[in-house]
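User: I'm putting together notes for a lab meeting next week and I want to include a structural view of one of the chains we've been expressing. I don't have a solved structure, so I'd like a prediction I can at least talk through. The sequence is below, exactly as it appears in our construct file.
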Amino acid sequence: MRNRIPLSVAIITKNEEERLPECLESISFADDIIVVDSGSTDRTCEIARKFGCKVFIEEWKGYGPQKNSAVQKCKNEWVLILDADERIPEETKEQIIEILEKPGADAYSFPRKNFFHGRWIKHCGWWPDRVIRLFKKSKGQVNNAIVHEAVIVKGKTEKADTPIIHTPIRDLNNTINKINYYSSLGAESLFLKGVKTFTFMARVHSHSSGFIYYS
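Assistant: Thanks for the context. Below is the predicted structure for the 215-residue chain, given as structure tokens.
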């Protein structure tokens, strides 16, 4: 078994005791894991510490600022951003190791395999759902969007061909709660930009009816 590699992983959490262990097990090859928690009332922080993570508890600032806070605490030049409901499968771990041994770019995007009740969702924009997650700390950062955040890179980006596993939905109630939550965050974000509410509501309706979820 290989030793841990000089890779930092940045994760934000709140009440993720059920899903966090599998996430952390999948990134056990990284030598630096940062968890920024926004006030969990379950065993999330305890679990993270047992896995050897560096845990920080901070007030919620929105997805972009919260993830940037985690990135800033990373000790390594190469950073992988991951959510608690995501996993790095073996083939992706091997590709990450190969990339870091001889990088050809400043950042890498990965396709995400989104699963719902154990089924891989391949339609409605759920595949390949490509996202930039691995990048040089000196070349990239998460934008300050409170929702639908993204990694912005000043440099060369390449596509990795191995996936990140994503299991965002637990059950129907969780789905409805997430739609409502993201709708509220989206409304707040658009309000701050001066977009009228009724315009946003039309967008939310079209996204919700298509069962589209972003993280």
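A couple of points you could mention at the meeting. Residues 172-209 form one domain. The chain has six helices and 13 strands.

User: Perfect, that's what I needed.
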